[in-house]
Fold these 2 entries.
Entry 1:
Amino acid sequence: MDEGIRRTQGEIMKKFQVKKPDIKGTFHKIKNIKKEDVKAYWKAKKERRERIIEERRNSAFTRKMQPVYRFMNRISLVFHALLACMINYTIEAISRHSAVEAWNYMTETPVVFLYNSFMIFVTFSVVYLVKRRMFVRIIISVLWLALGVANGYMLMKRVTPFNAQDFKVAKDGITLINNYFNGVELVGLAVGISAVVIWVISMWRRGGQYSGKMHRLWALAGVVVWFAIYGIVSDLAVEKRVVSTYFGNIAFAYEDYGLPYCFMASVFNTGITEPNDYNEETIVKISNQREMTKNETGRSKEELPNIIFIQLESYFDVAEAEFFTTSEDACPNLHAMYENYSSGYFKVPSIGAGTANTEFEVLTGMNLRYFGPGEYPYKTVLKNRVSESAATALSALGYGTHALHNNGGNFYSRARVFNNTGFDSYTSKEFMNILQTTENGWAKDDILIQHIMDAMDTTEGQDFVFGISVQGHGDYPEEKVIENPKILVEGIEDEGIKNKWEYYVNQVYEMDEFAGNLVKAVEERQEPSVIVFYGDHLPTMGLKAEDLKGRYLYNTNYVIWDNIGLKKEDRNIPAYQIMSDVLDRLDIHSGTVFNYHQERRKTKNYLADLELLQYDILYGEQYVYDGKLPITEGHMVMGVRDVTLKNIIPHLEEGYSLYGENFTKSSRVYVNGERQKTTFLNNTRIDLPETELNEEDVIVVCQYGSSDTLFRKADEYIYQDGELTVQEGTATDKTRSWVDQLEEEE
């Protein structure tokens, strides 16, 4: 029996015997190759290709589909029109999460529906340029439907529809994917994409080809004509107000004007279009002979207070909600501040998302209404160019300027944006030893207090601090995830919705605690100070105007706490005016746009002239500065505390324990330039389980952000006789921009 098995195995091995490659023979053939051989090879390849195509043409599937293809080619324009309408209806049904809502949209606003369908129809004109018309039709259809699916899913997680700006933050968003997708959804997404790709590939093979004569020049001319007609139709649609080029609310715009138009508007309509009357004379007049570029204050240096702005993620006063009550006050600290200090409604530029856009308005004083729909100026403008801001305005008066955020430093390109807008330092999550997170995995806000104090300790004079919280961030779970909530929500019957609000309200309660603790920490410094708390936008909860006492979805709340005796003056204020308002209360007149608001608010042509000024500063010739720019380059460093090493202790068998200060989970250890495997234990110890050290080895610890971005490097240490010797001056240069040093490292 064994002999039989061996004989069988031998026969199998003979069948699958690997032939030794004839390398010498191959080189000989290449060396002696003839022109005729090359021609014969390509001729044979062409004939083989033609045989394959012929076989496909004569396949059972192709023969069965030939009558369909011929019919579709005869009535292709009508077919494209019907297909465009079907696709438009389908993506609207997916986006609105309702076939009925999509039907109402189609029947109640037929002109808008047909305009969007015409846009899709025009994209099908490119099929006449190729023989594989069916395949190209499938590709175009899949792309439009994918757009609808992406938008539909996004609207399940937030209130801002899917738009072109999402592609610009996609790289950063990957780091937060677990906050938006659970395991089942990720698997479903992967399976769905794979299935579509396989199907599309199969249709490339099975879809057949146009057998008639190709007239590509005429086809190209036809494509140009159709796109030209679409341009004319679009101009008429805007002129007749079928659609609009300005989206006061991008979510409502998608509902009113349709996904195809709104998405394409977000692709092509970005930045600020040059106003008709833009010229140097106009800008000089608007800026009061350039007097608005001044940087001055009526206070003495000793009287100038610290200025702290705290942006609370998704915060609003839950007492404003009329459809539920809470078991106790969810915001006792902030409510006490509302009673005793200046406060009111805070008008923000978006609902349920757009944190970075609220930041933009607050820090620059610029109005987002002049930018493209759904645009993030952080990504489209400030990431790549310098601009004045509150940081430059206050730096001109001797303030230290610091930004802090308990989330990733690269998200929304903040690390580069804050560098380009004049901040001295930016402390992001990568520099924080975060021990407490929400049930959804977001860092709790209390971590910001110590880092704010550390940032203020780096300067001897006054400080401007811009803090961005993250604790209140969604998605808000429908299941009960807080075992013993401090605050109970009452009045909501649906269990899932109740759980979402209960989770949110308890985050608000802890954010309120953070606000109260920050005030105490600032009071203990016994320095003149002002703290502005405000919400960046409403939470993503499907709120309607009638759910709120203020009956307005763009309102959150703000309060201006101080210990210098400012008069209480309550009023409602938009985000782009809050900085100028606070500075005016402090008798500070610094920064071109802030001075403009202080002098021109409530005057004729205020908003029209603001648009001109914004265009001049960000896109124009910067006439307002007359060559004297408030900022020419960034100088910001990441973090304010150095990582220092104390000693390194060998393990009994293998590896070492590295001891020092200011380690975080984002710390990476390098030995002679090679990254080591590490285990972060706490802010004073990192284990190196596989590291082997030799005399004179160089050890350095670096702080990295997402996308392997080097934020800050500590001093190098030499390992010798079991001791570490610091090489001073080898760390990140704190007098230069982290961006410049990163480019040098690369």
Entry 2:
Amino acid sequence: MMKFLLLAVLLLVLSACGGESPELAQLDPDFATFVANDGDDQPDETHNQEQESDVDIIPTFDNHLNIAMPLPRTLNPLLNSDPYLAQVLRLIFEPIVIFDESLQPVANPAIIESIVFAPSGQSLTITLHQNIFWEDGTPITSADIAFTIDVLRHQSPATAVYRPNVAYIVSHNAVDIHSLHINLRYPMWQMKYLLDFPIIPREYYQPVSMTNLTHPRNMHPVGNGSFRFYDYILASRLELIPNTNAPGGRPLINGVTAHVLRDMSDVAHAFEGGVVDVLSANATDWGRFRATGKNEGGIIASRDFDFIGFNHNRTIFAERDVRVAIASVLDWDGLLARYYHGAERAFAPLNPLSWLSVNIEQPAYTTFAHAGFVLGDDGFLQRQASPALPPMRLTLDIIVNEENATSVNVAQLLARGLLDEGAYVELHILPSNQFQTRLNNGNFDLVVGTTTLSNHPTMDFIMGYNSNYLSNLLHQSNRAANQQVLASSATDIQHYFSENLPIIGIAFRNQVLFTARHLSGDFHTSSNSIFWNVQSWHIE
């Protein structure tokens, strides 16, 4: 039987909430006596109060869009390893695909005419529009796509944002000046999800040493996006001006100033202080930014998935009834309303906003009594494993990262619910390093955390769980030759998660785009770019 192991990248992202500013959540005094606080991790009330920002940039308006960016090591999008910077560089470079409102990958209408898969699903052909140009006036051709793929496969750093996107490409050949044929390792319609990387011009970048991140051409990008490079002031700001050759159309805004922040967790403070005009914030922060009187744009579908994980190496969790009984202690409607602003329950690691999502009714949850537990004389749940053994008390250790405030709140509710049922519970709210150590060592029973899923909807990150049936479902999904097979596999996977609970899915942390009051336009976004419709934005 296949054993699904927690991926190393998951161990990293579990240690912090994706996109949420680090914040220590307060313990509920009603059950503080049941909580085992480790080390010096007692929450401090000051962490729940608004922190004073150290941003010292003077905002400029002058018909410019002001945004934030991290200190860049390079401005070449294929060599960049910072997801925040990747968003900024989307203003300069167009990707092959975008994601529509249902999270389905579609050909980027600005530059791509079509993406056609062979019936086998093991190859595809990308065709560019004709008469589209780079900002310097040179035509965009299939050779540029081929060059981009080769740089990502062979020359980009191992940590580059888009390097994993080409891992399944084995070869390519030009059909003509506008079309490129790509061969894949195996049938994989999901490859379409991975085509959300930008392309770069071969003629401009071919002479460049890609190992030199700060080569002049790697710091002076030439692209095909709505804006073009104008100037970069070291560790201060990046200035962009409209690209008159933009395939997607010339923007209405006269320019963009991307201010370098010393710490990207300061973006919220910069937005509230008028330094930047745009902020993508978690749903948990809606109230905070609504109170500032800023405009609220559309919802941005997130890949940040919150869940409760079991340590399946503990034999007790081999029993479905035990897992179901644990899920039953939570008031799901109240939890989602209070901490996720009414987001839809996600039973499986697939966003309910996705075209692959199906409506699933919450199954009837059973109780601990159904799992064979009774209250002992000491008031705690116990059961007899066999007549020859004494009763076994239900003892559960829960771990959660103190920096993940929403998960701490969920963990507190879970601990309270289990205590009310008679379980003996220790809740450990841990500093990141201690949380990571206990997670790595398997020193826990339950973990409450967040994982950031990849662009293509694979769901293979369960801790020590054995299931041939789930293994086959995941294999079918990963090797789907077309979208119909993928949709069928995704449906079966979602039903399996809801009925068998290899994890307890909670919800996705969808985000909201907030903009300054003087910014107007169509704020429709794509899940792979908050600036997708920037050409329609304007400043009043």
